[in-house]
Amino acid sequence: MPLLFIGIDPKSEQGDSPTVWVDTDANELLIQGWTASPEEVERCYAEGGTAPGHDNGVPPHETVIRLPARMAPTIRNALNALDQPRPADR
Fold first, then answer.
1. Please, which domain of life does this record's source organism belong to (predicted)?
2. Helix or strand holding residue 34 (H, E)
3. How do beta strands 4-8 and 19-23 pair?
4. Coil, strand, or helix at residue 37?
5. Residues spanned by the domain of 68
C-alpha cells in the first residue's frame, strides 16, 4: 500500500510545512519537521535525559526534529490510521 498522507501544520506557510505520513506496510510514521539545532539536540540529552542503557547523543542514522504542539491532532490521526485493521491483518 502506498504511503498515506495525514496532514500538515495547519498554520504553515507555503514551502514550510511540517508534514505527517503513515507507512501502513512498515507500520510506521514518517514525519517532516524543522531540523533541531545542535544546541537543541544537546538540551534534549542534558535536560530531558534518555532511556536507561542508551547513550546520550543522536546516532548517525537518526535525527531530532521539532514540531509545533498544534500538530498533536495530526499525529493522533496518524496513530489512529496505524491502528486500523488492514486486509492482511484480517
1. Bacteria
2. strand 34-35
3. antiparallel
4. coil
5. 4-89
CB atoms within 10 A of CB 78: 21
Tell me the whole-structure pTM to 2 decimals.
0.80
Integer angstrom CA distances of residue 66 from 18, 31, 38, 60, 80: 9, 10, 12, 18, 21
- In terms of DSSP bridges, do strands 28-32 and 34-35 run parallel, antiparallel, or are they unpaired? unpaired
What's the number of domains the chain is made of? 1
Q: Residue 18 in contact with residue 35, Cβ under 8 Å?
A: no
Half-sphere exposure of 28 (CA within 13 A, CB side): 4
